[in-house]
Automatic annotation (TrEMBL):
PANTHER family: COENZYME F420-REDUCING HYDROGENASE, GAMMA SUBUNIT (PTHR42845), CYTOSOLIC NIFE-HYDROGENASE, DELTA SUBUNIT (PTHR42845:SF3). One of its GO terms (molecular function) is oxidoreductase activity. Residues 24-160 form the NADH:ubiquinone oxidoreductase-like 20kDa subunit domain. Keywords: Oxidoreductase. It comes from Streptomyces globosus. Coiled coil: none annotated. InterPro entries: Hydrogenase_assoc-protein, NADH_UbQ_OxRdtase-like_20kDa, NiFe_Hase_small_N_sf. The keyword Oxidoreductase applies. This is Oxidoreductase.
Amino acid sequence: MTTPDAHPQPAARPRLGVFKFASCDGCQLTLLDCEDELLGIAAELEIAHFAEASSDAAPGPYDLVLVEGSISTPEHLDRIRRVRADSRHLVTIGACATAGGVQALRNHADVDEYLATVYARPDYIATLATSTPVSAHVPVDFELRGCPIDRGQLLEVITAFLAGRRPGIPNHSVCFACKRRGNVCVTVAHGTPCLGPVTHAGCGALCPTYGRGCYGCFGPAGTTNLPALVPLLHRDGMSEEDVGRFLHTFNTAAFAAVEEQGPGVTGAEGAE
């Protein structure tokens, strides 16, 4: 007769990998900024690969992978496919990973001209003509917006993974957050240009709370109507060129896609 092990081995913790592509590292730093909560995360997850935090990088497979940064070089294409193959669940974090980032401004111009202007030896530079989100190349299980991402939303995504449920990230606009905070609308009250009506919530309406118009760092909201907003931006003193610059920043590729689709379209939500 066999007897149960008097000292059973503890169950293995799910393995977390954090990877960076073309980005500024700000979204990875948001995870480190969780501070006290990070201790709880480390107790529930084995942080197997996180170069921003440790040089001890263990190979896959990983149960959950967080990816920061856009796909901007041929090497990125190869590496994101390897990361995806090693990942049970892959979540992109931040505007670079979900929309190509500010570096996607190259998508509107001649990348060879940029290279010739910036680099003394552009023939040494290996780059792609466009900067694209991770989802353009591999399947993504969820997209977390922001430049940088919100700390509370990141904790929700990790907690949801541990609980085996979908993250409860709202898909409404910044205007909802302004109402909840009791903010006076900066556009209605002061004629301040604001992208709040078409921007995904997540920042807690930070800029409008301090009297500044939203400038779209979380990308398009679930449903947007840019054609209805643009005349208001003109009314508040913005030229056509100003409006273009207003939209072409952190999420230029995402807003450009919405512009092409027309009014009342659904913006990119957390990927299924």
